[in-house]
Amino acid sequence: MTTIAILGAGRVGTNLARKLSAAGHHVTLGARNPASASAPHPAVAVADQRTAARTAEVVINATPGHTSLELLAGLRPELAGKVLVDVSNATHDAADGLPGELCHPGGSLAELLQAALPDTHVVKTLNTMLFTVMTAPESLATPPTAYLSGDDPDAKRTVTGLLGDLGWQPGWIEDLGGIATARATEAMILVVPHLLRRDGFRPFAVSLAR
Fold first, then answer.
1. So what's the architecture of 3-199 in CATH?
2. Cα–Cα dist 143/19, whole Å
3. CB-based contacts of 187: which residues, under 8 Å, 6+ apart?
């Protein structure tokens, strides 16, 4: 069992909290306003984000990507020595509210997080799919891909184990290498708004076929 904090109480965070708690992990949902957040599973605790981060072994960033850097940089002491799993995408909204341009073209949010949090092991994953696929990869007709980017091998092994608890088979996980490779998977978000405008919120993943 791992003690996990999930920062962000929206659809992504609550979806991950529900599945990881059901898998036997001790999960705390870190909300900006804990009084107005509801636990998605009876075993999931709710706390403010700083408390959640301080008391966890692994922290998952499910906050809006365009605000993540400032938020998490402010939690540097709480995140020191821990694995930070970044599943967000940092974009500016288009006119219709869907993801638009990248906030960090030529780089990535994950790289900036690692630079801002040198004592934390940042791993990027699960940002190339609809949020429902994160916890139900078997729901797609074609096996999806979960990409991994991170500089620390032990941190990536920890995250690979958590992906298994979410239903990801080993053959569906693609380790791309260091954290700099996250700029490639973060750029994949640029195809997503076109899919959503055409198909709505139909489950999908941007995957590797061999």
1. 3-Layer(aba) Sandwich (3.40)
2. 19
3. 102
